[in-house]
C-alpha cells in the first residue's frame, strides 16, 4: 500500500479537492483505495458520504488497535472499492502545535495494522487529507506516508509556503521517516489566461524546478458541483469536469510511478547518489538555468536540481 499525504499551509487552496480528485482517478483506474480524513473540517468525509460509524479517526489516533480502526472505517458512497477512515471535529483536539507527542506515530501504527489485516483484499493506495497547517496531525501523516503532495495556489505567498512545507517534509524524513519523499508541488485553481497566475507558476518553477508538477488543476465550477453532489469528478458530465479528470489521471500516474520507483531511489540515495525528480514539460519559467535558485533552499535541493553527468 502506497500512502500519500496531501497537505497545504493554508485553508482554501483546494487540498481536499486534490485528495478527492486522486481518489476519483484511482476508482477510474481500478485501484483499491482508502481516504483518511485528518482535517477536522471533515470535508472529504462529507463528500465521500460514508454511513455513520461508531468511531472516527480521532479515536484511531488515540487507540490504534484493529477493533477501533474497523469501527472508524466505512465504504464511501462513491464505490465499495473506496473506503474512508472517517474524520470528525474531535481531531482538532489532537492538533495542538509542537513536534512531540505520544500520538505522533499512532497513524503509522494504525495503517500497519490495517495492512496486515487486509492481506486478502489489500489497499493499493491510501490518501491522507491533512489539515491546512503543519501541526501534529499533518506531521503524523508525514510519519505514516511514503510520499507527500503539496497543494498551493498561484499567488504571491506560494513560494514561501512551499519552502516551509518542503522543509518540514525534509525534517520528518531525516528524523522520523526515512522513506518519505515529496511527490511534488501541485498548483490548484489555475486560470490559464491570468498573467499573474502564469508569473507565479514561473516563480515556483524557478525556485523548485522539477518538484512543480507539469500539470495544474484549472479553476472550474465543475469541482464544486461534483463535490456538492457527492460524485467523483470523473463521473460529472461537463467539459470542465473532463479536463480536470484528465489532470487528476496524470497526478495519480505520477504518484503510482513514485511508488514503484521508491525502493530504487532509496537504494541509490543510500549509496550516495543524487536523487532527482522526473523531467517536467515546459511551464512558464522552465528551462535552462531556472533551477539555480534552489541553492537558497538546501533542504530540497536534492529533489529539485537537474541530473548531472
Question: Could you explain how this protein is built, in words?
Answer:
Pfam families: AAA_31. InterPro entries: AAA_dom, DNA_Partitioning_ATPase, P-loop_NTPase. There is one protein chain. The protein has 309 residues and is of the alpha/beta class. The chain has one domain: Rossmann fold (3-Layer(aba) Sandwich), CATH 3.40.50.300. Helices cover 43% and strands 12% of the residues. It contains eleven helices and seven strands. The chain has a seven-stranded mixed beta sheet with strand order 3-4-2-5-1-6-7, with helices on both faces. Helix 1 packs across helix 10 and helix 5 packs across helix 6. The longest helix is centred in the C-terminal third of the chain and has 32 residues. The radius of gyration is 18 Å and the shape is globular. The chain starts with a strand and ends in a 5-residue tail after the last helix. The C terminus is likely disordered.
Give keywords.
309 residues, alpha/beta, Rossmann fold, seven-stranded mixed sheet, 11 helices, globular, disordered C terminus
Quick gist of this model?
This protein has 309 residues and is an alpha/beta fold. Helix content is 43%, strand content 12%.
Given as residue ranges, the uncertain stretches (5+ residues, pLDDT < 50) are: 262-309
| Count of distinct strands | 7
Amount of helix? 40-55%
CATH superfamily: P-loop containing nucleotide triphosphate hydrolases
Which structural category do the helix and sheet elements fall into? alpha/beta
Which architecture per CATH? 3-Layer(aba) Sandwich
Number of helices: 11
Cα radius of gyration in angstroms: 18 Å
State the name of the first-level CATH class: Alpha Beta
Strand content range: 5-15%
CATH level-3 fold name:
Rossmann fold
The oligomeric state of the chains shown is single chain
Kindly report the spatial arrangement of strands forming the biggest sheet. 3-4-2-5-1-6-7
Ends distance: 34 Å
Succession of helices and strands: EHEHHHEEHEHEHEHHHH
The average pLDDT score comes to 82
**Largest pleated sheet:** 7 strands, mixed
Rough outline: globular
For the record, the count of structural domains works out to 1
Amino acid at each position: 500500500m502506497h500512502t500519500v499525504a496531501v497537505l497545504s499551509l493554508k485553508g482554501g487552496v483546494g487540498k481536499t479537492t486534490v485528495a478527492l480528485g486522486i481518489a476519483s482517478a484511482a476508482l477510474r483506474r481500478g485501484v483499491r483505495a482508502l481516504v483518511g480524513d485528518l482535517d477536522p473540517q471533515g470535508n472529504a468525509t462529507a463528500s465521500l458520504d460514508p454511513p455513520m460509524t461508531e468511531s472516527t479517526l480521532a479515536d484511531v489516533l488515540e487507540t490504534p488497535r484493529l477493533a477501533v480502526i474497523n469501527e472508524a472505517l466505512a465504504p464511501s458512497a462513491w464505490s465499495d472499492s473506496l473506503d474512508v477512515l472517517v474524520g470528525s471535529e474531535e481531531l482538532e483536539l489532537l492538533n495542538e502545535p509542537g513536534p512531540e507527542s505520544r500520538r505522533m506515530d499512532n497513524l503509522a501504527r494504525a495503517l500497519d495494522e490495517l495492512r496486515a489485516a487486509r492481506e486478502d483484499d489489500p489497499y493499493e493506495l491510501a490518501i491522507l487529507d491533512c489539515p491546512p497547517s503543519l501541526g501534529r496531525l499533518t506531521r503524523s501523516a508525514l510519519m505514516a506516508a511514503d510520499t507527500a503532495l503539496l497543494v498551493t495556489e498561484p499567488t504571491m505567498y506560494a513560494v514561501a509556503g512551499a519552502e516551509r512545507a518542503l522543509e518540514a517534509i525534509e525534517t520528518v524524513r531525516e528524523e522520523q521517516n526515512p522513506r518519505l519523499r515529496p511527490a511534488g508541488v501541485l498548483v490548484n485553481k489555475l486560470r490559464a489566461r491570468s498573467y499573474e497566475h502564469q508569473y507565479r507558476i514561473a516563480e515556483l518553477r524557478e525556485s523548485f524546478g522539477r518538484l512543480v508538477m507539469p500539470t495544474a488543476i484549472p479553476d472550474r465550477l465543475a469541482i464544486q458541483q461534483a463535490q456538492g453532489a457527492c460524485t467523483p469528478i470523473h463521473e460529472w458530465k461537463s467539459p470542465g469536469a473532463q479536463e480536470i479528470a484528465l489532470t487528476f489521471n496524470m497526478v495519480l500516474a505520477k504518484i503510482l510511478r513514485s511508488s514503484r520507483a521508491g525502493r530504487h531511489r532509496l537504494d541509490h540515495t543510500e549509496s550516495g547518489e543524487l536523487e532527482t525528480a522526473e523531467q517536467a514539460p515546459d511551464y512558464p519559467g522552465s528551462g535552462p538555468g531556472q533551477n539555480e535558485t534552489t541553492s537558497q533552499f538546501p533542504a530540497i535541493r536534492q529533489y529539485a536540481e537537474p541530473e548531472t553527468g
